[in-house]
Fold this sequence. Notes:
Layout: E1 2-9, E2 12-17, H1 25-46, H2 53-98, H3 102-124
Antiparallel strand pairs: 1-2
Amino acid sequence: LLSFSDQRYAQKLVLRCEMLLSSNLKQDGKKYSTILRGLFYMVDQIVNYKMSQGARQKAEQERQALEKAREKENAEKRNEELQKKKEEKRKAEEERMKSMSKEALRKLEEKEQKREMKKKLRSKYVKV
């Protein structure tokens, strides 16, 4: 794997090369020396290489698309976690209500109705 990029990592341009070597270096040594010479030649050439404006824009658009996809995936995960928490909270509330007496349930329902009325009143009045 040989990868060239115009991206900077920690204020440095990075050139990355990975090679899978066989365990028998004595027999394949000549092949690897040729590969290494080619690799160093590429490094010398890449220093002078400049991306065209169109290629640079295309690469930037692809990076932005990947970033958007990552952000969307993260947002979906956060939403799923929030939904799970809400569901757990709702179940816990139901369990708590099952263990309450009828009088306590009635008082709780009155509080909920008052809360709902306040919300409705707030939504009617819009601040300008």
